[in-house]
Design a protein that fits this description.
Radius of gyration: 14 Å
Distance between the termini: 26 Å
Largest sheet: none
Number of helices: 4
Shape: elongated
Order of helices and strands: HHHH
Mean pLDDT: 95
Helix content: 55-70%
């Protein structure tokens, strides 16, 4: 639930950027300011699940968390590159 709530904040922010018809650079700055803190908190929360032994690393959830942490740079590209999409759903 925590992950889904964080992701919903990111998509809500992207919808706001679209409604405001922000340029790619303005969208990047908007996400850095509004979505960056949420993504940093999410990363910390994911890491804590292992650090505090709340999730078994070999479980299904543990595997998903480990995968996300391992490839964290890709799903956060929208915080570093103007115009980077949030997902590849169009593919």
């Amino acid at each position: 639930r925590h992950v889904l709530e964080a992701i919903s904040v990111i998509y809500r922010n992207d919808a706001i950027a679209q409604e405001r018809n922000l340029s790619l650079e303005a969208r990047l700055l908007f996400h850095q300011a509004e979505s960056g803190p949420t993504m940093r908190e999410l990363h910390a929360w994911l890491a804590r699940q292992f650090d505090e032994r709340r999730v078994e690393p070999n479980s299904g959830l543990g595997g998903a968390i480990a995968y996300l942490l391992k490839y964290w740079e890709k799903p956060t590209l929208f915080l570093r590159v103007a115009g980077a999409p949030l997902d590849n759903n169009r593919a």
